[in-house]
Amino acid sequence: MASFAAAFVNPCNFIGGVSFNPEKDIRDLSGKTILITGGNTGLGKETILQLAKHNPKKIFLGARTESKATEAIESIKSSISQDVDISFIPLDLTSTESIKKGAESFNAQSERLDILILNAGVMSLPPGETDLGHEIQLGTNHTGHFLLTKLVLPKLLETAKEPDSDVRVVTLASVGHNLAPNFNTMLDQQKLKNVNTNARYGASKAANILFAAELARRYPSLTSVSVHPGIILTGLYDSIGQRTPLSSLGFKPLQLFGSSVAQGAYNSLWAAVGAEKSALVNGSYYVPVGNCKRDNKYATSEDMGKRLWDWTEDELKKANL
Question: Domain residues of the chain, as ranges?
Fold first, then answer.
């Protein structure tokens, strides 16, 4: 908890970013196919709204509930002047069967994938698990996205073979990675389920950073980075501050650093379509906006990255995935 709060108190964490305005700093996206998870609300919906303004070929919106996704698509289309092709992909990241069907639906509809934004996530949930038996936050935020990426990876790699390609995978992480328990606990699901919900969330966010870095190492033709969106002024963080009177007191100052949902989408938009490819350090972790944290231990540890990747692959193999 102390290291989490320190990430905001230290002024150095807010030095070195770039100026970014999605209206004018996102280049023309003609011909680009984009897939984003959790696109029906919050940061995901805002991200799609901004992308839709810049002429992409097609956007696929991954979400659990079709009615909510349809409502979001209609809202986005009514908010912009240009016509844009946005399609719903059913996707429940706690269900391997749903992920498989979602990936199959995407692969059947698209011959390419230029930008994959792994945006969906859960936070501070009560004890629970996915159908793989993984702790619910790690299983949703990490394992679910790992499996989805694995299943659409051929599309990413084929697109990356094209001349002057610029294929990117952006994983939404969080400064909450500072709440993670030790690495061995992260890989032991029984131990992980026994730590508090904030530590379990931290484990999932540390895993996001590790995954993005390892993806870049294994597939250097792709640009893969992780991003922290900032502290967004929604109810997402409420449960952390409500655990105890002490934690509530400790989290009140963090509200001073809060951002709107629109601002919260800036860092992922910058990484996905705003920054020049040459400006991105492949495998790195960025805080808003475009501030590369080169010394992040999860982004730089090849050992932890490899061990998490191999562990996740083994877990999927047990389920014949």
Answer: 2-318
**Catalytic annotation on 201?**
yes
Taking alpha carbons only, the member of 108, 317, 296 closest to residue 213 is 296
Q: What letter does residue 28 receive in the DSSP assignment?
A: P
The pLDDT value recorded for residue 260 is: 84
Task: List the catalytic residue out of 32, 205, 219, 286.
Answer: 205
Q: Is the pTM of this model over 0.90?
A: yes
Phi-psi map region of 130: left, alpha, beta (phi>0 left; psi -120 to 50 alpha): beta
Considering the candidates 201, 237, 286, 298, report the single residue annotated as catalytic.
201
pLDDT at 125 over 80: yes
Q: How far apart are CA 103 and CA 151, in angstroms?
A: 6
- Residue 196's pLDDT is 96
Closest to 82 measured CA to CA, from 33, 41, 30 = 30
Distance CA(235)–CA(3), nearest Å, equals 22
The pLDDT score that the predictor gives to residue 316 is 98
- Please give the CATH topology (third level) of the domain spanning 2-318: Rossmann fold (3.40.50)
80 pLDDT more than 60: yes
Sequence-distant (6+) residues with CB within 8 A of 122 are 136, 137, 140, 141
Strand (E) positions, 93-182? 115-118, 168-172
45 tagged catalytic: no
What was the pLDDT predicted at 247?
45
The side-by-side arrangement of strands in the sheet containing 291-292 is: 86-90, 58-63, 33-37, 115-118, 168-172, 223-227, 285-287, 291-292
Q: Across the strands, what pairs with 287? A: 291
3-class state of residue 185 by DSSP: helix
